[in-house]
Amino acid sequence: MINLEIPAKLQQVQQMAQQLAAGVFRPIARKYDAIEHCDTPEELKPVAQMMAAMPRGSGGKGGGDEIKNGSNMTGILAVEAMCWGDVGLMLSIPGSGLGNAAVMAVGTPEQKEKYGKLYCAMAITEPGAGSDSAAVSTTAELDGDEWVLNGEKIYCTAGQRCDAVVVWATLDKSLGKAAIKSFIVPRDNPGLQLVRVEDKMGLRVSDTAALSFNNCRIPKDHILGSAEIGDTEEARKKAFGGVMQTFDNTRPQVAAMALGVARAALEITREIFEKEGVGADFSKQPYNSTARELELYRLEADLEAARLMTLKAAWMADNGQPNSKEASMCKAKAGRMGNDVTLKCVALCGELGYSEGTLLEKLARDSKIIDIFEGTQQIQQLIVARHLLGLSSKELK
Amino acid sequence: MSTPLFDLTLTEEQRITRESMRRLARDTLSSQARAADDSVAADPALLDAISGFGLALMPMPEALGGVGMPRSPLSNALAVEDLAQGDMSHTLAALQPMAAVNALMDFGDEQQQERWLPALAAENFAGAAVALNEPRATFEPGAPATTANKAGDGYTLNGVKSLVPMAAQCQWFVVTAALDGDVAAFVVPADAEGLSIEPEPYMGLRSANMASLTLENVLVPAREKLPNFDLDRLLDLSRIGQCALAVGCCQALMEYSIPYVKERKAFGEPIAWRQSVAFMVANMGIEIEGMRLMMLRAASRAEQGLDFHREAYLAQLQCMEKAMEIGTNGIQLFGGAGFVRDYPLEMWYRNLRGIAVLHGSLMV
Q1: Judging by DSSP bridges, how do beta strands A180-186 and A223-224 pair with one another?
Q2: Strands, DSSP E only, in chain B?
Q3: Mean pLDDT over residues B147-176, rounded?
Q4: What DSSP state is assigned to residue A191?
């Protein structure tokens, strides 16, 4: 039966996350934006303990025909609410790294046991390989019982504060995508050096690190998934596709960040409007409304579209339905929506929006990266277009 | 506390209905749409084919010749979407009686239902419509220029109503008018003295045969005022109907464009292989997805008896803007071929602009 309302059970999660966002994140959002570089904020440590204690929802593909609202949807709601508080702080909660998602998705039971509860960052991007993740040139060579990693990684979220890094490296660059594997490297490995932590426009409290791997040796069992390289074209394609599939689950979660940031900006804008006597109460036809009412309606409509698309993509994952297209659709829509909404809210509120007196200008700085990381707007469009048109990456480059 | 899960699965009944409606849309409506548009006339066979699904009969009490099912804005919205994949104009035209029946079921009393509904209890098209729009740029449904004044045991109606589909074939209208600082609605028979119907040529939706009604001192008995009239509900349920029209047409447009851009070659390869073209298609898919989900949420809230004003308002705003973007990009993808009338692109473009102006026209 078609129903797009959030069931009561999930609303509880939403409310808890919202309380956390309002009670813990919001009051310190400005403080850490100004501090920028620091260790994990003290205020987040109890949050991490609380989250580690929460039962992990069951995954998607359970038995039976019954519809599920599971861990993917719960994640969307929690991330959205926390990012309403502060997206940078949400990303700084120890144990919530993208690397954790990768370990939980494809790790062996031993890897999950050992690293699942640690704080795992993800290192994919290199100075010469961004969106084109198949072009990574960090190498991994087997030497006896150890892998030896060499290369440079940049823009690694939590690369400074994490316990371990999931690193993408190639076993043989001449074999292309199929030879790219991911490896778990403990952060204190002597072959792993922190080069720098970036200074950024927004998302400042979240550490974005450049890492260097110099003959970095890790045990043989620290590879995620199989070490084999497919011997046929088909098998190779499938192997890399498997790696990319992690994104089908993570992209809606990143879309949810944009939802939280946009809702925060719209709520602040509405409060300011109401103080100044602008109602925006949906009482007149759009074109009979004032310009600022209409603009607010448009932004709210865009947020609503992105929100429902994100929920759908997560709902599909919860119910074991292939959602690659929908995951990219919601990331594309939410990414551009979040940026557009926050920027327009600054403009709509004039001096109050541009000043550091409200959070609007900060939200507008934070929102930009959400349309870039975890696949840029353009990469999402490319993926959606290939799905809709039935074209390969050779045809539609 | 137990509340329903978030779910996008159609019921078995909705799925079966969807299949047969899409079959009609694909096999018949889409191929006949152009001829009807050219001749500015709805095809009676198509109107009957759509009427055959009995959407107007569903909520009507059995005693009046209907099916006596609960009102279902959601099923109606799904039907509008499916049929509009074939042709927006005929969908709008053929489902006018459904909108009028819905208005009488929601806002009328039993006597009014007994007086006016049996005439529509037919398998074939039998006309009736809601007349709400007026020919003014700043028209606001809550402040119509059409007036009702108390006159003896009834009311005198004066004013002009526009954009009324199939008006010439309607047996009665639900007419909104200003009364004592509020808006009231009245059932007005098509043959009422002082009521005249003028066909109006419009940019699109031409086979919906839209017309203006001029009311000059039309006397309406007091018993024909709808006692439970709720303008917001009428507008909001119509907004859902407009969204469903837009989603259906845009879906058809995208599906029609995909094979074309894959076949059409420029610079030695299909134009679909170029990102500037492919991304236009991607954005169509992305926006249609958002439009459809917003429409479904508003409809499902209406179905569950939840407040749905904000959801319907935002859905309609999103649909009217994004649908037109898709409409104009559809022509762009086809280039000159989109502009000539051999292809349906220019018709869809003209039809989709209507989404922005059809206030109150398709109450689901």
Answers
A1: antiparallel
A2: 127-131, 147-151, 154-164, 170-179, 182-189, 195-199, 211-221, 265-266, 269-270
A3: 97
A4: T
Q: Mean pLDDT over residues B226-231, rounded?
A: 98
Average pLDDT over residues B140-167: 97
Residue contact B297–A1, C-beta within 8 A: no
| CATH no. of A8-103 | 1.10.540
If one compares A51 and B305, the residue with the highest pLDDT of the two is: B305
Give dist(CA B121, CA A170) in Å, integer: 71
CA separation for the pair B11, A9 (Å, rounded): 23
Question: Is the model's pLDDT at A238 over the cut of 80?
Answer: no
The CATH code that applies to domain B231-356 is 1.20.140.10
Residue pair B40/B328 in contact (Cβ under 8 Å)? The answer is no
At residue B1, does pLDDT exceed 90?
Answer: no
Whole-number Cα distances in Å, B59 to A64, A233, B78 = 35, 58, 16
For residue A297, what is the enclosing H or E element? helix A291-318
Shortest Cα distance from A71 to chain B (angstroms)?
A: 13
Measured CA to CA, the distance from residue A384 to residue A386 in angstroms comes to: 6
Pick the CATH number of A119-231 from 2.160.10.10, 2.40.110.10, 1.10.287.370, 3.40.630.30: 2.40.110.10
Could you confirm whether A374 is annotated as catalytic? yes
Q: Report how far Cα A168 is from the mean position of its chain's Cα atoms.
A: 17
Q: Kindly tell me if the per-residue pLDDT of B291 is higher than 80.
A: yes
Mean pLDDT of A251-277: 97
What secondary structure does DSSP assign to B115-172, as a single string?
A: HHSGGG-SSS--EEEEE---S-TT--TTS-S-EEEEETTEEEEEEEEEEETTGGGEEE
Give the C-alpha separation, B288 to B139, whole Å: 28
Within 13 Å of residue B39, how many CA atoms lie on the same side as its CB? 8
Q: How far is B299 from chain A (nearest CA, A)?
A: 9
Nearest to B7 among A2, A297, A325 (CB): A2
Report yes or no: B309 at the A interface, CB cutoff 8 Å: yes
Domain borders along chain A are 8-103, 119-231, 235-389
Instruction: Give the bridge partners for A211, in sequence order.
Output: A153, A194
Element (H, E) at A165: strand A164-170
Contact A6, A67 (CB under 8 A): no
